[in-house]
Design brief:
single chain; mainly alpha; 18 helices; globular
């Protein structure tokens, strides 16, 4: 009896080890880590170096970043359709090729237009091979453990930030042109290799969502939307929840986008940091972010996701205000803690709550249309902060306004109740 029990346990453990969904999560986290380190977080570092070399204004830097992030809004609906039509593997491979081309172009630029155009190309490549694509693949594999799986993806995003000081060393050692070209080639090749893991479903592997038999005992809370009630993109857009989540998410990106684009410039121009010193502040945020993701992973499948998101928005607001008015070191460290915790806890919830409310079947298209609203935060926040910094000579007014808007955004999440059922489509 003991022998048969041991054999059954061994077989069960083997099934857990080979569950393809976790392979998808691991590959996705690795891809997001590279995007975070060499695209998202590195932008602020490149901004400081390019401003030193070419003398470009903060507004110019902001425009480049805004075009970078406008990619998600401009191409989001098209990418959602492409993911639905051609699958994640094909879209990811296309993105890897575009990403390489963008970095090679960026390594040769001499003008602001070249900077804007090359970083927009990089953003297109990173978008096609990055967040929306890997999230779409992940929600296909998980339901009851969705928040945990997406939090692990977020850990990859945060881990990339830890590499920021190494990026600074590469910039100093090899120059920004060689660093850019090398980064593009490394990321592109690795993404092309990892793309082979994508593009399948649990049924293709003879298994179930979450790797467990749905007819067996359930240990996790199930999503709000059952498989029979997955909403199409048009049905989701006719619910208040779609717009409230999108507006709340956009409000958070006012802060996240501005910090990514301007933190290094702010620390070096107004707080007296060197570029290397600023990189350690930027690199410290992911440590707090990882803690926030752990909190979201533990509680996201057990308590109200919208409550967690609303609380995170208050963290974004308080953290940015502390940074803005920092005259003591502890205030900068408090910003790192609050902003990192808020970003880490809220980030994975953005995808999890959409999948819970609207289902996974049309997730890519729903995310694609949501990205049009999100673009307002990612583009508007950094541009607003940069223009005001040039006009007033300080980031103080811009950061303060954006922080207060983010705090008000908590109300959108608080009001985003689950949709009761799909609205009838016009054709029905």
């Amino acid at each position: 009896m003991r022998r048969s029990t041991t054999a059954a346990r061994t077989a069960r453990d083997a099934r857990v080890r080979v569950f393809h969904g976790w392979k998808v999560v691991g590959a996705s986290a690795a891809i997001l880590a590279m995007h975070s380190a060499f695209v998202l977080q590195a932008f602020g570092l490149y901004a400081v170096v390019l401003r030193e070399q070419f003398g470009w204004s903060k507004t110019t830097i902001s425009i480049a970043y805004s075009f970078n992030r406008a990619e998600s809004g401009l191409l989001g609906p098209l990418q959602g359709w492409a993911l639905q039509r051609f699958g994640t593997k094909a879209v990811m491979r296309l993105g890897a090729v575009v990403l390489i081309a963008g970095f090679l172009w960026f390594s040769q630029i001499e003008t602001p237009l070249g900077f804007i155009g090359s970083f927009f190309t990089i953003a297109v490549g990173a978008g096609l091979s990055g967040f929306m694509t890997v999230t779409t693949e992940t929600v296909r594999w998980f339901e009851g453990m969705r928040a945990r799986a997406l939090s692990i993806l977020g850990l990859g995003l945060a881990a990339g930030g830890l590499v920021v000081p190494m990026v600074v060393l590469a910039l100093r050692q090899f120059g920004w042109r060689a660093t850019a070209a090398g980064s593009g080639l490394v990321i592109g090749v690795i993404v092309l290799v990892l793309a082979s893991i994508f593009g399948t479903s649990p049924a293709d592997h003879g298994t179930f969502v979450d790797g467990t038999d749905p007819n067996g005992p359930q240990t996790d809370n199930r999503p709000v939307v059952s498989a029979a009630d997955h909403l199409t993109a048009s049905e989701a857009m006719r619910t208040p929840a779609f717009w409230l989540i999108a507006l709340g998410h956009a409000s958070s990106l006012l802060v996240v986008g501005s910090v990514i684009a301007h933190l290094s410039l702010y620390l070096t121009s107004e707080q007296g940091f060197s570029l290397q010193g600023a990189s350690f502040v930027v690199g410290a945020i992911p440590l707090a972010q990882m803690t926030g993701m752990a909190i979201g992973g533990v509680f996201g499948d057990r308590v109200s996701k919208r409550l967690l998101c609303a609380l995170a928005m208050l963290g974004h607001m308080t953290g940015l205000l502390l940074l803005t008015f920092a005259d003591r070191t502890w205030m900068i460290w408090a910003f790192i803690l609050l902003h990192g915790l808020a970003w880490g806890m809220r980030g994975p919830m953005m995808s999890a709550i959409r999948a819970d409310y609207f289902g996974a079947t049309h997730f890519a298209q729903i995310m694609g249309y949501s990205s049009v609203v999100l673009m307002v935060g990612m583009v508007g926040g950094p541009l607003f902060a940069g223009i005001l910094a040039d006009v007033t000579g300080s980031y103080r007014i811009g950061f303060t306004v954006l922080a207060l808007l983010a705090g008000a955004g908590s109300l959108f999440f608080a009001a985003a109740k689950p949709p009761r059922s799909p609205s009838p489509s016009p054709q029905q």
